[in-house]
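User: Run a structure prediction on this.
Assistant: Running it now.
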Amino acid sequence: MSRPEVPAGAGQREQPWRRRLAVGAWVFSGLCVLSVLGTALMVMYGLRYPTEDQKKCCWEQNVTPEWMAKTMGFQVPGTATDRRAGLHTNAQYDVALLAFTLPTAEADRFLKPLQPEGTQLVRNAHPKKPGYTRSDGFSHLGLPEPETFVDGMRIGGLCRGDTKTPQGQAVQFCTDIYAHEFQPGTTRIYLWAGSDAAIDKPPA
């Protein structure tokens, strides 16, 4: 039995539609990727170059250095001066800040039990440019960001359990530590802790 004849080109008429669908899918996927990248870049730019509104946004009131030290799990020496603290909250993560000044010898005694065994604080090998700020940084407390210092700056950090000392076990959040001897014999300690979970708010 002979096969029915197929009109010339009948099998090719569907190809332009398939091609258009494929092109449309690629265009849609590309737009989605560009949208995600654009949002990520905007967030990163906002963190590095915050606007005045961003600098003022999302800071909790009634945050005291004493309350923050207890919340973060640090035992600040009684001789510490120029104590400052802040709590920044947003939909992605919360940030706790604590800063204070000590004689360098006392600062070293404070820092030693917070260093994981076999580690030491290191120099700031990749400083930020002077004037650098961030929306969740120490500039909110009236201090230069510690990442901008080189001379006299030592950097470290720990999470809870990184050390076996009582001081290390008491730390509640993974914390970046900056120790800046800004004048001979005097060191300012900066403690910056980020948390994916909400940090308890201070009492009103």
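The chain has a mean pLDDT of 86.
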